Amino acid sequence: MIREVYPQIYLNEVPLPKNPLKALNSYIILSEDRPLIFDTGFNKEECKKALMEGIAASGIDLKRTDLVLTHMHIDHSGLADYLWKQGCKVYIGKKDGTLLNNFRTSPELVLNHLSEGLNLKQGIGIKEIEAFDIAPKEPFEYTPLQEGDCLEVGPYQFEVIDIPGHSPGHIGLYERKHKLFFGGDHILNEITPNITFWHYKIDSLGNFIESLNKIRQFDIDWVFPAHRSLIRNHRQRIDELIAHHQERLEEITGILCDGKKTVMETAARMRWDLNYKSWNDFPLTQKWFASGEAMAHLEHLVYKGEAQRVSFDGKHNYELVNP
Q1: Given strand 222-225, what is the order of strands in its sheet?
Q2: Residue 126 above 60 pLDDT?
Q3: 275 vs 11, which has greater pLDDT?
Q4: What are the domain boundaries of the chain?
């Protein structure tokens, strides 16, 4: 069931079956002109049922409703094509719109490219691709958003803010007068956003920290995140997130002290809050996620000049510049 969390703003909780995130916070902002929905959940029947029940309870007409995807991840975009076919106008950040289309059409190319870069011994197979088969199934039209664009919804005037890091084209919407921020996965309570490797030309972690510091300067009373509880003190939570990643960097620096490591060798020695006895017990998909996060931190050390990427036995290795 949906519940009002701020005047004319409703939280529509969408379950994410068999996923540690548990649920997505989709939001509905009512307006006599064009209501607005934030994010959708996976392209799964359980998600669609919950999403549409909340939409029906809100009484909005999808033929005159806007949908904003805060970023391209499939727990946020999986039902975008369905809502588009129901009449919604879809918005997403320009970079993530392109990434989402590429992933939707050729997931195996994206996953195999990353698995090669992460030095995973096994490639991504059909079972792993099927695990991601909850993305939009059909092409849909969208309007790209970038910083400086504005969306007016009822009594609220939202400014689009670029906040790359969790994804290259992640966006947030800021309402200056009421001090509200819809941040997708940028700032989360209870859990930390996953920061992963995207490309050697992108410092994902550096971008994320820069985006956190950017939002830290904003005057915000309410953060409406895509997972877990609402946030009232965004600066305190931002400081905690930055401290978490600093600890990760120190952990990885310690791992590299006894010599060069591949991404997977680094990930295997990192601490993970998962219920597995050893790295060998991790499912391949989980190794992919863990290695992606390790690589984002390793590449950040490269960007800072504290580590370097070297070739050894045909694989990328990382070593400290001044061990």
Answers
A1: 150-153, 156-162, 171-175, 180-184, 222-225
A2: no
A3: 11
A4: 3-241, 247-320
**Mean pLDDT value of segment 116-139:** 62
Q: What is the mean pLDDT of residues 45-67?
A: 98
Asked whether the beta carbons of 142 and 157 are under 8 A apart, the reply is: no
CB atoms within 10 A of CB 99: 19
Q: Is CATH 1.10.10 the classification given to domain 247-320?
A: yes
The reported pLDDT for the residue numbered 131 is: 53
Fold entry, domain 3-241: Metallo-beta-lactamase; Chain A (3.60.15)
